[in-house]
Amino acid sequence: MEEFLTLRDLFNEELSISEIARQTGHSRVTVRKYLNSQVPPLPQKRSKKPSKLDGHREYIIDRLKEFPLSASRIYREIQDRGFTGKYTIVKDFVREVRPEIGVPAIYRYETKPGVQAQVDWAECGYIDIDGEKRRLYCFTMVLGYSRMRYAEFTLRIDVYTLIQCHINAFGYFGGYPQELLYDNITQIVKKRAPKSSDSTWNSHFQDFFEHYGFIPRLCRPYRPQTKGKIERTVGFVKKDFFMGGRFTSFTDLNSQLQKWLSRVNSIPNGTTHEIPIERFKQEGLQKIGNAPSYHNRRDESRKISRDSFVSYLGNLYSVPYRYAGMTARLQISDLTFKIIVGSDEICTHEIQPGHGKVMRIKEHFKGLLSEILKQNCTLRDNNPSILKFVDTDVEHRPLSVYDRLGGGDSR
């Protein structure tokens, strides 16, 4: 109506149709149509084009009310009914008419103080260590009641690293809960049973949890909400700390993470709305000092080279020279390893990063040169180098033999 009146006002001001068209942006045909009409022209409805989906719409709606079928399933079904159109038409229509399904409600599982913690690993891309590209992982543990968090970055996810991370977390909390909840990973369980306690555990991890006496629990497959607390913690570490951070080394990465943990454990939790470190006072964990220290180590066998070195992770480490050529056992912990021959612990080395390094301890070779010289002297004494001539044997014959040879008469 406003457009209609504007056009007529301009015409009454004796403007030409061309001028009105320029000022209003309408075509001259439209201007002329509005001026010749006594009332505003009603918009003409376009006739609806027939669709190949006609005749199948009610069927699709009824099927979706009955079952939450996929668009591809609906497409196959109406093809059997004679539909000749394309899949995109079906997909768009299914999206338009599919009944909305509300998010299924879940029960928030809250634990009592000191009862449970949840544990998880997370992959965090790659890191450069001494020019080598290494996978980076993050271990996380959260206490169920207080929401106190612990985390650390690692370069391995084997069972020994897992155990060491537990020991570090227990030390951070000053204790451990009655049970810990895990995913079904091989570092924890070899074969899962319907009842967690009947599962076949990783023997190394079983030795660890039996040492401290906590109970390992396995979450049900495909039920991520069972471990909701730790899942949120993993995402929080990645988004609030790791992404976009600046770190000078692997050590600096974990050092900054510890400072971050101090901060987030001192601010209100989004679920409990309480400060974890204050709520932690009610946890009543089992004190880690109540159990003897757990020696987390893995054993590997090595042949000591003739020049008195063993190889570990691409680096060489010296041993006392008198053990050259023998077979040694390496007891490996998180940062060091011991070298044992028979029942004797012969030396300890710190594990060095990188490859191609030679860790030589002078004391391991003390006395070797003098012993080599002594052996050389002994060899010389036992094997003199003076050449001696051997006398030839001369045959002694009677004089009569020579007389006959000379033609003489023995008479």
From TrEMBL:
GO terms for biological process: DNA integration; DNA recombination; transposition. Residues 2-64 form the HTH IS21-type domain. The keyword Transmembrane does not apply. One of its GO terms (molecular function) is DNA binding. Keywords: DNA recombination, DNA-binding, Transposition. It comes from Methanothrix soehngenii (strain ATCC 5969 / DSM 3671 / JCM 10134 / NBRC 103675 / OCM 69 / GP-6). Residues 109-284 form the Integrase catalytic domain. Belongs to the transposase IS21/IS408/IS1162 family. This is Transposase. InterPro entries: HTH_IS21_transposase_type, Integrase_cat-core, IstA-like_C, RNaseH-like_sf, RNaseH_sf. PANTHER family: TRANSPOSASE (PTHR35004:SF6), TRANSPOSASE RV3428C-RELATED (PTHR35004).
